[in-house]
TrEMBL record:
This is Coenzyme A biosynthesis bifunctional protein CoaBC. Its cofactor is FMN; Mg(2+). Pathway: Cofactor biosynthesis; coenzyme A biosynthesis; CoA from (R)-pantothenate: step 3/5; Cofactor biosynthesis; coenzyme A biosynthesis; CoA from (R)-pantothenate: step 2/5. The keyword Secreted does not apply. The chain holds residues 180 to 401 of 401 of the full protein. It catalyses: (R)-4'-phosphopantothenate + L-cysteine + CTP = N-[(R)-4-phosphopantothenoyl]-L-cysteine + CMP + diphosphate + H(+); N-[(R)-4-phosphopantothenoyl]-L-cysteine + H(+) = (R)-4'-phosphopantetheine + CO2. CTP binds at D99, K109, P125, D126, I127, L128, F143, K157, K161. Residues 11-222 are annotated as: Phosphopantothenate--cysteine ligase. Binds 1 FMN per subunit. Residues 6-215 form the DNA/pantothenate metabolism flavoprotein C-terminal domain. In the C-terminal section; belongs to the PPC synthetase family. Catalyzes two steps in the biosynthesis of coenzyme A. In the first step cysteine is conjugated to 4'-phosphopantothenate to form 4-phosphopantothenoylcysteine, in the latter compound is decarboxylated to form 4'-phosphopantotheine. One of its GO terms (cellular component) is phosphopantothenoylcysteine decarboxylase complex. The lineage of its organism: Bacteria, Bacillati, Bacillota, Bacilli, Bacillales. Its EC number is 4.1.1.36, 6.3.2.5.
Amino acid sequence: REKKMLTGKKVLVSAGPTKEIIDPVRFLSNHSTGKMGFALAEAAHQLGAEVTLVTGPVQLETVEGIKRIDVVSAEEMNKAMLDHFAGQDIVIKTAAVADYMPKKQYQHKLKKQPGDLQLEMVRTPDILKGLGEKKTTQYLVGFAAETREIERYGREKLERKQLDAIVINDISSMETGFGSDDNAVHFISKQGANVTLPQASKQRIAEQLFTEILKEVELNDR
Ligand code: PMT
């Protein structure tokens, strides 16, 4: 029997998109389906971890044994991640978080007016950056969806957000990234790992990512 590598460890994963509400019928969001984040949560569960999954609005079911927290907006996701951050061993931010939200939420449906509409937007909290600043012993992993200069932008985020590792998601192909069943990523770590994981199912990519993460978490434990 295979030894469960994450027994006794706590893993926190964020998944899916956020939805930023404009009025009772309209919102701003993105194409994330939650598949990659759910695959990571399930892989961690399979490896014996105690898993908490914070997810934006998605159509996916959670396997039994994973603690799921549903949120809608970036602000709610930020609160849920901060509330559950203490005591985690590994934290992975797969969610595609909105960078801006409408300055005002309208209580009633906005009426059509003659001419154009201008919607004022403000920045959402940078969740990952906040976690990086709060980090004590957590191994913190970010994701970065990039279409070009993949490695340069990834490394830049790794440093700026004080991460232990970044998973750079190449979203230039239709078969990988948002919504697809497959993914293709690069894993780059502060300790110097630079691993390319070629196209495979999101489940397989999740398992491979934990293999890479575990190599580093075990070194830290020694
Ligand atoms: O859900 P799927 O359909 O399976 O698609 C998976 C995915 C493509 C969404 C996923 O693999 C992925 O790449 N997620 C990150 C997408 C993203 O929004 O990247 P980013 O470069 O905008 O953000 C970088 C990192 O900062 C991410 O870890 C993000 O969670 C985090 N972030 C961003 C903005 C913000 N306000 N707070 C954050 O914490």
